[in-house]
Each structure stands twice: as C-alpha cells, then as structure tokens.
Amino acid sequence: MPATATPARPAPGTYQPYAQGYLDLIPEGADPLALLRQQPAELHRDLARLTEAQAFMRYAPGKWTPKEVLLHIIDTERIFTYRALRFARGDAQSLPGFNENEYAATSEANDRPMSDLLMEYHAVRAATLALFSSFTPAQLDRVGLANGGATSVRALLFITAGHERHHLGILRERYWPVLPAADTAAQQLAAPLR
C-alpha cells in the first residue's frame, strides 16, 4: 500500500456490529496506519509512569489491572492481525472467537514487570505495522469469517487502532482519576488482606 494513501473506511456489512464502537473512535479521514504509528508513544507515556504498585490497582472490584489491560491490548492485536493475515491470503475457513475475560484471567500479566509488557507491546505493534503496511488495496478488501461473522482486512485495520483507543480512553477516564499516589498504592499492597 503506498505510504501516502489513506485507506478508505470499511463499508457497512464488512464488519460485525460489535466493532462499530471501535470504528467510531477513528475520525473521518484519519489514516489508521498513522494512528497505529502514533499510539505507542501515547500508550507508553501513560503506562511507563506507573509504579509497579500502581500497575496492580483496579478502579473497581473485579476490573482488570493496568497490566492486564495492556496484555489484553497485546493479545487482541495479535488475534486481529492473525485474522487479517489469513483473510488477506484468501483463507476461507471460519475462525473462532475468543473470550477476553478468560484470556485475562489466565494471562499472568500481574506477574510481569510493566517494562516487560511494554517491550512486548512495542514488538507486537512493529509487526502489526509491517503486516498492515504490506497489504495491497485488493488484500484490504478481502473478507473472511471470524467469531461467527464476516470481517474484511480493511475493517481489522481500523478495528485494531480503535480497540487501543477504546482501552486508552478507559484507562484515562476510569483508572487514572482513582489511582492512588505511588506511596499510597505501595501501602495498600503491603497491607494484609482482611
């Protein structure tokens, strides 16, 4: 795909209804590849500043930690790009969906340093950019079946960028306002469970 061409938005019917929220986060006329290139600096700035104690905090009971959110972004990006690769290559097999909550519950993200998760995120994003940048317009328009519905490679490009925007918005709106100061978070983690 030429570096100067902005991919057209996916046509209705080339993605599943759940994806509309992610597509709506990509402004009209925006280049999703440019967004994918810009997002790592933004995400890194927000998450690298967290102490390890803050990275364990949840904004409400039962919600993911910032580390789990980051690994969810990584896992989902891998799944979306895997689907994009298969569809771009003309694979007609229907691909299964995945349960994000089961993935998060078994991810062991909280056992890893934030710096390690960020390094993995950057590696995955570099691979994502290389893959999506390699697709021709015809490949972007190929459609496959995943999670019970039709999705185009073009839609997956936009969905990948929108998915990260969605989760960065949640971190900013729900996590950061209730995040305790570094010393308070460390004290809460050190306190015995009741």
TrEMBL record:
Occurrences of domain DinB-like (ranges): 36-170
Highest taxon, organism lineage: Bacteria
Name assigned to this protein: DinB family protein
Organism in which the protein naturally occurs: Hymenobacter setariae
